[in-house]
Structures are given as structure tokens and as C-alpha cells.
Amino acid sequence: MGVEKVLRCLSNSFSRFIHLVTFGVPKNLPCQKEYKDVAGSLKLFKRILDNIDDAHIHSDEILHKEFEELDVAVNEAREFIENWGFHSSKICGAVQSRELIVKIRSYSIKICETVFRSLESSLPPTSTSLADIQRCMEEFESLKLETASEKVEEAMKFIREGKVPPLEHLTEIIELLHLSSSQELLKESIAVEKENLKVDQSNQVNHIVDLIFHIRETMVNLESLKAINGVSVPSYFICPLSLQLMFDPVIVATGQTYERDSIKKWLDHGFTRCPVTRQTLSHTNLIPNYTVKALISNWCDENNVKVNRTVDHNQPELETVSHLTQKDENGFDHRSPVESCSHSRTGSTSTAVSSSDYQHISVSNSGEIASDSGSGFSQWPSDGGNRNYPRTVSLPLDSSPNDITTSSLIEQLVNDLKSNSNSAQTKAAAELRFLAKNNMENRTMIGQSGAIQPLLQLLRSNIKITQEHAVTALLNLSINGNIKSMIAESGAIDPLIHVLETGNPCAKENAAAALFSLSLLEEYRVKIGQSGAVKPLVDLLRSGTLRGKKDAATALFNLSIFHENKARIIQAGAVKYLVELMEPESEMVDKSVALLSNLSSVPEGCLAIAKEGGIPLLVEVVESGTPRGKENAASILLQLCLGSPKYCRLVLQEGAVPPLVALSQSGTSRAKEKAQQLLSHFRSQRENASGRGKS
């Protein structure tokens, strides 16, 4: 192509670029100011090129090539701006804009220098053309890139070197690119992943993917520092995609937990990699994470935080609840009573069985909670009571939740568990308890390191705090299904029963929760009942702390699913304490009624409930309890009345008919059914009695 044609094409490219930038730059396009500065400099450059005598540069091949390269760069920048959309990645945009602007600036300066040298010998020093070229060079040389693109480039240098960018770099990028809102960051994450799918293993995009990971991690940590009622939100309660407190946490194939709506949006875009681990998902099933959901529920209750979904984005938001008496749907007071246990423990699975839609549940062979509307099992109520879960970790350790756990560290801790030093054992158990607190990878590493057996041995330690740390570590590890099986197969039942009988209050609570966790494995539900765990669990139900009583009731509830355990629970005297705990001030009405509902399915259960004076309290629950409590209370009363005319008369004497009529009209579907069956039974009894009287 001749130089005249090259200059004509270049001039035309300048005009199109200048027009686009002047009238059509998208509002959220990175480097807008720099593009406008480039356009201003190109206006001057265009005037210079239009006035150049072709003869001066006709034979300069290097200059000819630089004209072509500048033309390509200007057109690339124009096409990039034209293709920029609202859903484009800001980080990718900043990186590409920087590259394009640097390229235009570099070629323009080179051309100006070449043209200046070419004209310098033939024009006087005072020539207007030479002055314009010098001014054009100065404008391009003084062109400064946007701070955001510079910060992104600095962060990318760290990533290319295999390092984590400094926190101040990441926070500046978040601020400069306006990624601080959860919606913007989720949109950016999706946009980056789309860019990643467009190219085949591009190092540049891979590094941007790494950068967005570090930004999300930083945002999660920043979110967790925000105080709600003066308490920081645990980082593992925050979805790494939505950056919101999780409302419906689910587990993906890699074991990571996300808010359902956020990860579903991610998967709906056709993405096949886990946003956090970057591993390819072997399947796209979303498994409810009942444990994390229960932990969040308990944390919210403890700290007077109410979780609502926002209307626009279907994301949870935090809302402070007044310290006045405010009850949730299960009737639990949201004030925070003082617990007797001063050491925090991480999430146990004892509160994992919860439901906001009042489905009936049973436990499947795999240990997962399954819908079972037709089963005879009662619904275990959501734990609205307060739990002593950690706001901050108060253990005598130097670690922090962000410490990188290595296999060598865990190996050393396992060795310390086996040492002859009591202090070394205690510290190692505490450290493992802490490391297993909220990190799936840590649990897997600890479970595979040989830690389970020495932890089980420490359950028989005479040092109470050592025993407590060991049982809590095992409880935390049991959240992982595979490790749960390993713990059970290592002979955990008897040592856990020993802790139930000898431990301090916290250790007893956590032992009960651990037994519940193991009872999610169906074969161990039988073994736990046969191993003598029922009696100490009932003792904890009688004399434990509020948390201990809740843990004991939860474990007993799950054991009661196995028919033979019902008789064991009744014979151990549980009904007496469950009836006592039906008093509203106990904060355990729903849990007590749920367990009694299971026990009432056998005749000795009905006998014990009536003998311990449970009928008046059950009628009271039908009248003024929670929806779930009413349902289970009606079920128990039906069992009692079907089995004995005497109990039927006692129920009627307590004035059960009006609340049952109300329940038959406005209760849950199962409650309506039970109330209607009971009222029908009353009518049948009355008609039979009337018939006998006439005859």
C-alpha cells in the first residue's frame, strides 16, 4: 500500500475514533478520561499528518510500517469501545484499555519523532509544523493512565510472580472500579468467567481470574469485619460469590458452600468450574448445607440479627432486631441469655435439621435429611434458641483464621497429641479444634493425617479442658461426611459416652452433638442406642445447661427414629423431663413435643406421657404453641386418644375441642389432618356412648 493510501486510511481511522469517543463512550467504560485525552491528541496529530508533504516520508519504510501499526491500534481501540457492554468485565476492560492506550501512545510518539527528524532538515526551526509535532509529542508523553488500570497492572505483576497482591492494592481496585457492592462484584465475577471461556488458556485472563478471586476473598474479609449489633460476621457465613450472609447455603461438587441463588446464577451461565477452587465441577447438583444454615441461624439468634431476603436481588440482608421480646416462627425469644459454657465451639450438626417450610423429614441411608411427608416421624424444630458459637475464637493460640494450614503443621500437631506432655496435648487438640472450625480443606487434611485415633484417646483424659478440646475437634471434623464415617469406624461411641458421663458442661454438650452427628449414619443409630448412650443423654436432658439439654434432645430425637431406641429412651425416664420442658419458660417446648411425638407411637410412650401429667400441657401447646408445636401436640393427643378411652376423656376435660377446631381450620396441612382425625374420634366416641345409652 502506498504512503498516500496509508496516510488516508490512518486519517480516516483517527476521525472515526475521535467521533466515537466524543459522542459514544459507555458510562462504565474504564479509562474514559484517557480515551478522551487520546482523542484530543489524535486531533492535533491528524492535522499534522494532513499537512505533511508525502515526498518527505515516501521512502521511509520504518515510518510506513509505524503508520500501519498505529492504524491497527487505533481501530482495535475503536472496536473495543464499540463492543463494550454493560455486562463486560471492568477488570478486563481496564487491562485491555491500558494495553491499547499504551500502544497508541507509543506508536504516535515514534511517528512524531521520525517525522520531526525528517522535516527538521528541510524546514526552518520556527516552522509551525515542527512546533505542532513537538506539542503533539509532549501531549502523548504526558498522557497518564487511569489510576485503576495502573493498580490492576501492579496487582497483576504480583500474580504473575505467584504472589498475593497487597491488601491496599486490592482495596484500591475495589474502590476505583466500583466493585464494593455485592451485585457489582458478582456481575464482575461472571463477566471475567465469560472472558475466560472465550479464550483458550490465556495467561492474561487466567491471571485476571486469580485477581478476581483475591478481590472476592478480600471483600468477604471486609464484610466479616462489619459489625452487626457490635459483633463481626464470621467470614464462613458469607457467600464468596454474593458477599451476603447466606440464607440458603448449598454445597457444590468441590465441597465449597455458596448461597443457592448466586451459584445457580453462575451455573445458569454455563460455567463448569467452582468459583473458589477453579476445579471443574463433576456435577451441578446443589446439596443443602444444613450445618452452615443452622450455624447462621444460631448466630443470628444469639446476636439479635434477623435475616431477610431483599426483593430486588433475592439476596439476604441484615436487619437489627430490637432487644425487646421478638419471637421467630418457632416461638423462640431472640434475646441472648447467658450460657454457662464459656468456651466457644464451632458448628455442630446437632442443629442441622431445620426447615422453614415445615416439611416432614426423615434421615436417609446416606445420612442426608430427606423430605418424608408420609413418614411417622415428627419434624425436628429449627433451633431458635441461642448457641454459644464463636463470634471470635478465644483459645490460647497464636493462629488466626487466615493462617495457611500445611500438612507439615497438621503432622506436628498430631505428633503433639501423642506426646507425654499434657500441655502439648491440650494445645494440639485446641489447635486442631480451631483449624477444623470452618474450613473444609482443613477437615480433610486433619482426617487423613491420623488425628482421629489420638483425639479419641484424649476423650478419656482426666484433664477436663483437654477432653473438651478433643471432643469439639471431633465434632467439627464430623461435619465432613467421609470423616464422620472414619470417626464412627474408629470406635468413637464409647469414648463419647465417657465424655457425656465425666466431662465439663461444654464437653458434654459437644459429645451429645457428636453422637447426633454419628447417628446420621443409619447403622450407628442402632449401635449408639445399644451402647448405653441413652441414659447419659437423658441425664443431660435432666441436668445439663440449656444448650446441653437441646443437644441431648436433638440426639435422642434422631435415635428415636429407630424403633428399638424408643423403649430405651422411655425406660431411661426421658418422658418426665420432656414433659417438664414443655413449660414455655424452658425455651424447649417444640423440641420436647417433637421427641414426645416420636415416643407416643409406642404404647409405653403414651402411658408415660399421661402418667407424667403431659395431657394438660399438650392441650396448651395446641392452643398457643408454634405451628410445628401445635402439629406435633395434636399428633400425640391423637395417639393417646386412639389407644385409651380414659385418655380421651382426660383430653376432653382439658377443653381441647375449641383449639382443635381452630387448628383444623388454620394449622399446617398435617396439623389440620391430625386435628380433624381427633375431632372425628371424639364424635365417634360420643355417638357410641349415645348408642349404648339408648340400648
TrEMBL record:
EC id: 2.3.2.27
UniProt keyword annotation of Metal-binding present: no
Reactions catalysed, as given in the entry: S-ubiquitinyl-[E2 ubiquitin-conjugating enzyme]-L-cysteine + [acceptor protein]-L-lysine = [E2 ubiquitin-conjugating enzyme]-L-cysteine + N(6)-ubiquitinyl-[acceptor protein]-L-lysine
Associated pathway: Protein modification; protein ubiquitination
Residue ranges occupied by any U-box domain in the UniProt entry: 232-306
First and last residues of every ARM repeat: 450-492, 532-574, 573-614
Compositionally biased region (Basic and acidic residues): 325-337
InterPro entries (alphabetical): ARM-like, ARM-type_fold, ARM_PUB, Armadillo, PUB2-4-like_N, RING-Ubox_PUB, Ubox_domain, Znf_RING/FYVE/PHD
A Pfam short name: ARM_PUB
Keyword Oxidoreductase included in the entry's annotation: no
Biological process annotations from GO: protein ubiquitination
Region (Disordered): 322-400, 674-695
Keywords: Repeat, Transferase, Ubl conjugation pathway
Polar residues bias: start-end ranges: 339-381
GO molecular function: ubiquitin protein ligase activity
A cellular component annotation (GO) from this entry: cytoplasm
Function: Functions as an E3 ubiquitin ligase.
Protein name as it appears in the record: RING-type E3 ubiquitin transferase
